Fold this sequence. Notes:
- Strand 1 and strand 2 form a beta hairpin.
- Helix 3 runs antiparallel to helix 4 (81-93), helix 8 crosses helix 10 (203-221) and helix 11 packs across helix 12.
- The strands form three sheets. Strands 3-4-7-8 form a four-stranded mixed β-sheet. It has a three-stranded antiparallel β-sheet with strand order 5-9-6. A two-stranded antiparallel sheet has the order 1-2.
- The chain is α+β, with helices and mostly antiparallel strands.
- It has helices spanning 20-27, 29-32, 54-74, 81-93, 115-129, 135-141, 148-154, 160-173, 182-187, 203-221, 224-245, 254-261, 266-271, 273-279, 284-294, 300-310, 326-340, 381-384, 388-392, and strands at 5-9, 13-17, 189-192, 195-199, 316-320, 351-358, 370-372, 378-380, 397-404.
- Helix content is 50%, strand content 11%.
- The protein has 19 helices and nine strands.
- It has a domain at 5-221 and 365-397: Orthogonal Bundle (Hypothetical protein af1432).
Amino acid sequence: MTKTKIINDPVYGFITIPGKLIFDLLEHPFVQRLRRIKQLGMSELVYPGATHSRFHHALGAMHLMQKAVQTLRQKDVDISDAEAEALYSAILLHDLGHGPYSHSLEHTLIHNVAHENVSLMMMNQMNEEMNGQLDLCIEIFTNQYHKKFLHSLISGQLDMDRLDYLGRDSFYTGVSEGIIGADRIINMLDVYKDELVVEEKGIYSIEKFIIARRLMYWQVYLHKTVVAADLLLTNIMRRAAELSENGVRLPASPSLAYFLENKVSNKQFKENPEVMKHFIQLDDNDVFSAIKSWQFVEDKVLALLSRHLVNRKLPKMLVSTKQFSDKELKEKEEGVAAVFQLKPEEVHYFASMAMIKNDAYKVEKSTSIKIKMKSGEVLDVTDASDNYNLKSLNQTVKKYYLSFYR
Length: 406
């Protein structure tokens, strides 16, 4: 059977699978699992088209990586066939460690374990199964390889991951502000003193990319109704975990039950094979099927929250640039306690306040976007640009929300 395939992608058209190793990776259960994890978590409750998966995104990022390698080679940047294959592998596998609903439950089901760390553990396991074929891939992914610019293509502020998800998420949500010129940006890439740089004539495309990222965060990723849906989902899982830890048996798949009943740490992930065994079986289907069942459990809080999510009855969200007061929160708590007849220790599931922040671009030595000027000087994009508003995007913007039912 030939292992050089093409896949029809709605964003880019035909994507080529470049060789046997990539084909075998795509066939692996770890990668196929990404088909069952939504890229944008609960965003479909705001943007109905946002049902695309992490698998879609991994394929798209790999496609852009192929274009980046081709561009850099045309500019006499030395990238061997083995290095190119390692780049395609690394970008294809970079999101393996995402749990159900992607970022929505990243620190709920699994505590203080970043998805990047889980991705690396899964890559190491695959590498053992494949007799070391991913050695170079992992070396580049962990930034241990001597050609540092290769890692920047996988993880940086102008990597193939971001270039794909901005354009792809824009396509599926219909939010046109996220449209970026990915082809133009890639064609402007170069390498200077082992750093990934952008030619000066590509600076306006980079400005648009940074602004698009900011707008997508406020309009999609941190849209107040998306935040409300994420909060509701998170509260459901927290309540389910609380009940499970107290000995209540809830309807759930074996793998979901395992994570509800056990607080899994980074160390346990590495040392206990049982953890990974259950994690690779866990996806969006486990979570939503359980929530449908939890609508009818005896626990009033879990049943109420579950019905609210299934029927899209989301909490009201007030958003402000100033922090809400404890008095304002208490008023909302008293209101929901009266409406739902809740005990004092149950109210926080229905009324809460927190902070959200948006970092459109950060000036950091290792990941900053560098512009190579015609003079040969290399500058950070905020220094190279004549757009004074760009400097302000380096600032973290914070907003505060007050969430409650009424």
